[in-house]
Amino acid sequence: MLIIVFICLIIAIIAITLLLITSRKFSKVIKNIIRFSEEIRKGNLDAKISTDHNKGEIKKLSDALNDMALMLNRSFKQITHERGELKAALSSMSEGVMLLSSNGKVILINNAIREMFQIKEDLTHERYWEIIRNTELNELIEDVLSTNTECKKEIAFLYPTEKHYLASVIPLDSPEKELVVVIFDITGFKSLEKIKADFIANVSHELRTPLTAIKGYTETLQEEAYESQDERKHFLNTINRHTDRLINIVSDLLVLSEIESKESSSKESLVSDFEKVDIREIISSSYDSLKGNTTEKNLKVALNLNEVIPITMGNRFLLEQMFINLVDNAVKYTPEGGTIGANASNQDSSIKIEIFDTGMGIPRENLQRIFERFYRVDKTRSRQMGGTGLGLSIVKHIANIHGAQIDVESEVGKGTKFIINFPLYTS
Ligand code: ADP
Description:
By secondary structure, this protein is of the alpha+beta class. It contains 13 helices and twelve strands.
């Protein structure tokens, strides 16, 4: 009996010892798992459970948890990488992009929007109307939020500078129903549209005047009452003058459009069209071709072209057009007996040309605008002289094509000087 009790006691002691050992080991594993989960919670996705002494089911559990952490780590790194790429793409975009939640909170805005609306602070999680104070844009976003339909609208900002934007608001097909607002800056495009519209209006106006005159005088000639030879001659002369004007405008417009299309090509292709040119020779031949006009007005021609200037590269035809226009203006706007002329000199790395006259001069307030198409200081005088208002615009474009800088100095009643600095091109 005593032996049986003793054996039972031994078994009980062994069982308790085994239980104690197992529960200690188990509690160590549990502690490891708790430490591991805390590391993961803190964001340390590199955390691992040591599996060295684990066996059986506990080892399986530890391995599964380590695999999960590894997967989490990989997905996290991929998401961070993709986010970085998206951020870089968004911030390099010239279009403004803003992501809004369905209740109008800003989730994300890119640099372009910050620049467009001069946003300095981090305004994510603010409402969109706190960032963009423009009623039209805010109404557009509100519309899309309530209708869930994509909308586009042109929006103008007049302050601090005039700006035009095309805003496009797109509802996303996602469970959170966010909105993407994309804003394109179309100010340049709008101003081109305006330049084009102004140009067409100007051309139409310029053509209309001589055409109306021609039509009027032709109708008068058709009337029988005007039979006198002198009257007929006078009308025919007037028709002829207006026809010349039309021809001048159309040919100047053709030259201008040809030059502008040249100007839009690359610098390399422009320069590849250049040939060797002697600028002094081109200038003196321009004065020669207008000799008739200078003699008629009894103008003194002073050409100071003795300084030897290098042969450079340029488009000979265009340079001739340039100097003929400048010399023609000097002749037109200098009264009888005045002086017109040119100076040529060598600068460090450029050739300086001056085309001057002792004519009527240009008022200071008009100097800024004389290179604009159809701009004239005195419209009537320019028309009487057969001017089209396009000459200096052509000159400016030709200077641009040659990389030359053109300036003007003038004093009313004393005269005008156009100064052109040509860079030196070597073949
Ligand atoms: P236009 O055909 O009228 O001469 P341009 O484009 O050549 O047109 O010149 C624009 C305007 O600049 C002229 O209408 C004239 O008022 C002024 N201008 C140009 N050159 C001279 C000059 N040498 N002296 C005075 N005014 C000038």
